[in-house]
Amino acid sequence: MIMKLNEEREEEEEEGEKHQPLSARVIKILVFYLAIGFLGWNFFNFIFSSNFCNIEEVIIQGNDCLSEDEIFFNSGIKFGENIFKLNLKKSINSLKKEPRIKEIEIKRVIPNKIVISLTEREAAAIIHIEEEYFFSTKEGMVLSKIDRPEEGFALPLISGLEINEIKIGEIIDKPEFRTALESINSAEVILPKKFCRVEILSPDDFMICNKDDTLKVRVNRPEVIINKENLLREALEKIEREKLLVEYIDIRFKDSLVIKLKK
Q1: CA–CA separation, 3 and 172 (whole Å)
Q2: In a domain, 46, yes or no
Q3: Where are the beta strands (DSSP E) in the chain?
Q4: What is the CA radius of gyration of the chain?
């Protein structure tokens, strides 16, 4: 009996709601959304104005050559700035101006951390232009200017490029640059740690040299070095065995090798 009365009462309430004037129902809906909006406004106002969400820590990942101070400064991020007011796109674009940065990602970590993750471009060669030296990628992008490299530097030194001006961030599009780099890298494959420098004599003529210029190999294409590996090894053995004074070894000729002796 009680259950029946309750059911009847609920049905009466539902019927009552259905028969409420339209204006009353509209007012209820408006009141509901106004309450939601008020709470939302207060929530976002708290987030954007409270010290709780101010940047207190910046974590930098993936940097090997660039210092954390350089990255932080170029990002334009400031400690104490509200984390939600930080313009991520602006910071990313600012960091992309640095040639050494290949890829960059910046994330907010609520409530007060920023994580900067980057991938650096790797230097593959040192370019010598007149009296200046520059780091370059294998694609020819100029990364930075450096002082005169010390002896025993791990990267090959390329000289003889005919360039009037070189700018940081630009790409050297001369084909002889890549040929020179590929040639000395090919020589490194068959004779590790023997050569450290390549001089561009012309777009199809290169001289690969060791540290003290006592061993020089003249070549026109990098694949020739690999193809004539055995001939080159035999020539080096002959030079050492007979104590020959050699100006350079020439491997530009088809199916042959020439040892040019000093006069």
Answers
A1: 88
A2: no
A3: 57-61, 101-109, 113-120, 125-129, 132-136, 142-146, 157-159, 197-202, 205-209, 216-219, 246-250, 258-261
A4: 35
For residues 58 and 148, membership in a common domain is answered with: no
CATH of the domain at 112: 3.10.20.310
SS3 (DSSP) at 207: strand
pLDDT per residue as tens digits for the range 183-218: 999 999 888 888 999 999 999 999 999 988 889 999
**Bridge pairing between strands 197-202 and 157-159:** parallel
* Report field, pTM of the whole predicted structure over 0.90: no
pLDDT in tens, 63-91: 998 999 999 999 999 998 988 889 999 99
Handedness of CA 77, 67, 159, 207 (dihedral sign): negative
Helix (H, G, I), strand (E, B) or coil at 192: coil
Distance of CA 247 to the CA centre of its chain: 41
Contact 123, 137 (CB under 8 A): yes
State the first-to-last Cα distance of the chain, in angstroms, to the nearest integer: 126
